[in-house]
Design goal:
The protein has 70 residues and is mainly alpha-helical. It contains 3 helices and 2 strands. This is MarR family transcriptional regulator.
């Protein structure tokens, strides 16, 4: 769960610059963990698959996500 939140926040900040696997590696996840997190986020409808971008997943447009300041 903690890794899913970390990955999601990194995805928000990434804004399509890195592909999804490289983004996971950047925060210390291996490819398998990254794929599991992507599946979970897709099933929760937090992200959607989009072709023709460097990162093939983006945030769903139905919700606006901002990083919460601590």
């Amino acid at each position: 769960m903690k890794n899913k939140i970390r990955y999601f926040n990194a995805l928000v900040e990434n804004n399509g610059q890195l592909n999804e696997i490289d983004l996971g590696e950047k925060i210390g996840l291996d490819e398998g963990e990254t794929q599991e997190i992507i599946v979970q986020l897709l099933s929760e409808h937090k992200i959607e698959y989009v072709e023709n971008r460097r990162c093939t997943y983006r945030l769903n447009k139905t919700k606006k996500y901002r990083k919460k300041s601590s």
